[in-house]
Design a protein that fits this description.
The chain is built from 13 helices and 21 strands. By secondary structure, the protein is of the alpha/beta class. The chain folds into two domains: about 170 residues, Beta Barrel (Lyase, Ornithine Decarboxylase, Chain A, domain 1); about 260 residues, Alanine racemase (TIM Barrel, Alpha-Beta Barrel), CATH 3.20.20.10. The longest helix has 21 residues.
Amino acid sequence: MTNPLAPSWLELPADPNALVPSVWSHNSERADSGELTIAGVTATELAARFGTPVYVVDEADVRDRARGIRDSFDREFGRIGSSVKVYYAGKAFLSTQVAAWMIADGLNIDVCSGGELAVALAGGADPARLGLHGNNKSLAEIDRAVGVGLGAIVIDSLIEIERVADAASRHGRVQPVRLRVNSGVHAHTHEYLATAREDQKFGIPLADVAATVAQIRSHDSLEFLGLHSHIGSQIFESDGFAEAARRLFAVHVALLADGPVPELNLGGGFGIAYNGADVALPIDTLAANLADSVAQLAAEFGVPVPVIAIEPGRAIIGPSTTTLYTVGTIKDVLVEGADVRKYVSVDGGMSDNIRPALYAADYSVRIANRSSAADAALVRIAGKHCESGDIVVHADYLPGDVQPGDLLGVPATGAYGWAMASNYNYLGRPPVVAVRDGEARIIVRGETEEDLLRRDAGLEPAFMKDNS
């Protein structure tokens, strides 16, 4: 029977062991033994080799999704006589291996800090296939980006025009730039995830674009590529993108009067399913809808279809990754004297996935080391941190015999899990393991207590002596 404490969107599953295909990576399944396997590697083996928590990345899934987005947008925009530059949004999760996968599979990479730039370059990315954005790029970040020959820098403020132009002059090159525009389109998403509202830190208002582009064009060291828009994250429909494109297109056309505007960047934010209630728009449908919208706009304004750029991150890496945890303690909590919520505590928490605490994001969970015939029970998966808000999964159903020592798998943690991880309560960040064809390998090492202590300058003399 459905627990009255369950949220309205959460249905009582017929089988609390079943993996919802839209939520789990393509190569996740139950073995005959009932154990979760990812790309042919069992959860038990992964936990034994790498410990828990551990982020497990289904490599083939990541790369299939990257190529799928590239192919869908190439096909649909080729149909209307244009082409697409697909940038992987590195902020979702970036390592040298992921950077190498993206470049090998025909994508560019978008970075938003000097650190992300360093990782992409170390992964072998051609600087010409990288873009840099951010609302407060440092002078050092700008100088390095220009110096290595970055393919595009996104201008986010008037101040940055002069900074990028000066760096380009010093390095003797013409730096291609885009202009981040605040379109005013409100994506249907969490307040903190909507990044195109008027009262926020990103971009230039539409009313100021003409004067800003004129200032960019006044510098011989800058090449204006076009406008850049990002309307939010975790978006499940295409109408917001279409409306943003309409608002930008009018400005794009006006700018053509004074010079070329070869591109239009519509950003990213394509949503994914985190639980069985989420219905993400298929990429093929999204690409077709956006191509139709852009073609219609070009026809209405009587201008050629520009090259389109997009920046998916979560849609590529998010569904690919499962975080494995070990159950520690369990307690049944009687809520309002009537209904029981089972609190299942694990060995990680908000230090490896801050999104449930930060955004009230909903995730799902399954027992990973076995299947069970026990009746479903409503659970809340809690972390081990000293915070009442340290929740990993707010609500899901698991077999009622979940017990200490069980492994739990939380899917769809590839985007922003590791990227936003912290050392809160002095927990080390977990390792990231890639799995493919029955093989597993570490692509980002986990942190140990020794790693944490090594940064403590107060311990440095004795620590270095004891560990030399």
